[in-house]
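Suppose a classmate hands you a notebook page containing two proteins, each written out with its sequence and a corresponding row of structure tokens. How would you begin to make sense of it? This section walks through that situation. The first entry is reproduced here exactly as it would appear on such a page.
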Amino acid sequence: MAINKNHEFEELNGVKCSIVEKNAGRERIEFLKQLLEFNHFTVIVVPSPPAKLAPAPKPAAAVEGESPAPAPNPEPIPPAPETFTMGVTNVAFNPTNAIFGRLLKTKDGHVVTLAYWEQKEEISNDDIPYFEQKK
């Protein structure tokens, strides 16, 4: 059980893992997997369970003596997007602490910044601290 929302644990494929990200798309998972494996973490990825659908609304009751209204054709349900849950086997890993503690490195030797982790920047600009960067 996690102490707070920032440090979650789950069992993925029978292995207790620290959760890195839930409901992430395929591209995001590939990016994080390469980054974490480069930093010597064992990564486990499993498909996320599909979202629960809301129950269909019940038709309105017909007034006595009137014929019931025809049921509207149900709209086809679009397929759920394919999402994944990613974890690392090191249960001491916490993504927030790893980013702000400057514990992760990119392949070119730079420290991983928050913008790089969130894929807002393609190159980790660790020369300027985040609190001095102009937006």
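The notebook's second entry, a different protein, reads as follows.
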Amino acid sequence: MQLPVNYMTNEINTDKKKCGSKGKAMFAYGIIQLGSSVVSALALVAIALSFCSIKKEAKVFNECVEEMKANGRNSSNAVRFCNGGK
């Protein structure tokens, strides 16, 4: 038995219609995935920059404690003073 020539053409056209909606869904998924990667990268940059400021603040605090200890205060009083205590 021989199938009509247009039988395969109809089957191919049907498959293309089914793949069209999948293609749109995959495209949307790709865009969402890319967007979430960009947001993650920006969050990591923000965290890295905050670590730099924390490092600078710690350096200033340590210098303050060393200066207070050099002026004759004990360690606990120097730390209290540098934290804003009296």
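A careful reader of the second entry would note: The chain has a mean pLDDT of 83.
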